[in-house]
Specification:
With 364 residues, this protein is mainly beta. Helix content is 5%, strand content 35%.
Amino acid sequence: MEFINNTKYPAKLYQTLDGSGQRFASIVVKASYSFPEKNNERARPATQQSEINLNDVFVAEAGLSAPLFESDLAPHKPRCDILIHANAHTENNKPESQLIAGFKLGTCEKRLLVTGNRIWQKGWLGLTPSKPEPFTSMPIHYGLAFGGQWSNENATDALCYPQNPVGRGFAKGRFTKHLLGTSLPNLSEPLKSVEDYASNYRPMSFGPIGRSWQPRLKWAGTYDDNWKENVFPLPPADLNELYYQSAPEDQQIDYPKGGEVISLYNLHPTRSFIQFPLPNLTLPIQLICQKGFEHTLESNVDTLIIDATTENIFITWRARFPIKRSLLEIKTVFIGQGINIWKANQRTQGGCCGEPATSSAQNG
């Protein structure tokens, strides 16, 4: 099989399954673009392209700390994830006790309140937050948002905030006594600073949701005895592909086409406001089967990572094509422009690319 990548961007072919057991040849392409130096200019391809990420990346210990990046090898995403990797920064590096940071991409807009470090201390009526310490920079990830989990020494008794088990500031009942002197969240909804450890605050961040957290977990399907005995190793039939969306639901949009404007607020150490349009997002992907039939795949941008710490945008396209058994059914995958020139060269050199009939395979 030939895998021809006629772009500057890393790409990979891999096999996936859906809940019905249908096999797919999946193709992922990941481009790195650099922020423009001035607002409203176009982003350009980065000099150094980031490799396709094969594993999840966490702030600290895997599964026990906030996720920063997920593997790029998702089976399928019905929508586009917008993920922001950044620190909040005060304007002109002036210490502040609170600020608002946020982003806008097209019609998707989100802001959060960033508060300086606080701890739970004794008050007249129980635990109360201390005054926030001034700060100039604050990381943005779910480890600093409301949530958390507790257990006793032998793990026979436990309490967890299912929307964010890796967060801070939450406790109830018998676990409340452990809160004294511990940290409150730094990230919260605007106008809703965390003041009560037992309330149902919405965890706020711009990064990915953990695979086992709510509300993402509700899409994962049913893993019961019937699944273990009759379905495994296939996914459960009731798995919804929205499970593969790693962004919070308010950071999921329809597939972008290019030209949508990105705006960042207080997410860069020297530029308090950054704004520029997305580049053209058209990416042709052609597939030729062993029998010679040619298919034009629908490639969609299903992940946009705006990394203000490195001034990069990571753009991920994904396409898939149904197969019967294995990737060996595919003769050629061609990514980018120029397939007609390639086919002409194949004929000139005596290669065999067949006389394929053209059809279209939908991505999903």
